[in-house]
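Predict the 3D structure for this chain.
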Amino acid sequence: MNLYTSIRALLVADATTNAIVTYGGVTHIYRSWQAGYKNPAIVIQDDGDEPQNDLSGHSGFTVSECAVVCRGDNSSVVDSLKDAVKAVLAGYSGSGSGAFDLVIDNIASSVTPKQEGSDQHWFDWIIRCTVLVSETI
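Done. Predicted structure below.
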């Protein structure tokens, strides 16, 4: 399972999230921050995965961690984007081939100057998630 592709598909399928990050004919959901990217945008950062063992060996489950970062230069738009993303991801449980369950572990905000000494800022909401994938589905 490709975690980025799967989470991106969930977010694009949500009308509210998609409306906020799609403009100019492009959906602004990335794997990493790009120089000159448009905002608001979402970055899905995969922090790795580990097979989960039980007493008999590999359990058939893999646990992954990721961060879904909502960023923009308008705090109210980024707040709305965070709320939309949270509504999609909170308690998500899929079924069928490639299914996964997702739990939101933490949500934190950050304000960063666009450039050193700038009075313009990036507003970020970082949504940290744990994803459980069954390899036997």
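DSSP finds three helices and seven strands in the chain.
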